[in-house]
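The freezer alarm interrupted the setup, so I double-checked each line after restarting. Inputs confirmed:
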Amino acid sequence: SQELEQSPQSLIVQEGKNLTINCTSSKTLYGLYWYKQKYGEGLIFLMMLQKGGEEKSHEKITAKLDEKKQQSSLHITASQPSHAGIYLCGALVGGSEKLVFGKGTKLTVNP
Amino acid sequence: DSGVTQTPKHLITATGQRVTLRCSPRSGDLSVYWYQQSLDQGLQFLIQYYNGEERAKGNILERFSAQQFPDLHSELNLSSLELGDSALYFCASSLGDGSTQYFGPGTRLLVL
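Predicted 3D structure, all chains:
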């Protein structure tokens, strides 16, 4: 079965700093999703990547899918307290619409 | 706001009881997905419905069942509840063609 490993598990940064979260898959990724979750709340869709080498940006968040399609990174530039939360990567299990998720990365941004 | 609604927001019940969680998908979405999020297991896929028909099943317990109605809303029924069923239950919806799944706010279930 496909597994996603996220690193780091948690991250504490000062406001204004850049940071990167990684998501590594045990199998080829056919669709990689990034979501953000505030504690105990719903998941907010951030971005979806499908093609190897693809890169997408939204405001100060950039996500990339590597050429071999087994790893994705999420980069936040000039972090703000509003970026705090749990970032989850999710991948479609090949040939289905089931999403498997990593355990999440908890981000704290100190003002 | 994702456009996916879930009720109730919170539910507290006792072991052995049965509860029903409700989900209304985004307008135009035909597919509904149910996920369970717990501290030890993380976010786990339970089941998917597409236009009223079951399309995919994950590690859903036999005590759990779901259905999607003609108006496309879905219900997840949990019976013979155990302490370990306490979790956040999310519903997501999509067009059903592998497109982005949008999640609802979740139902927090506490079994005492």
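Quick read of the result. The CA atoms of residues 52 and 71 of chain B lie 9 Å apart.
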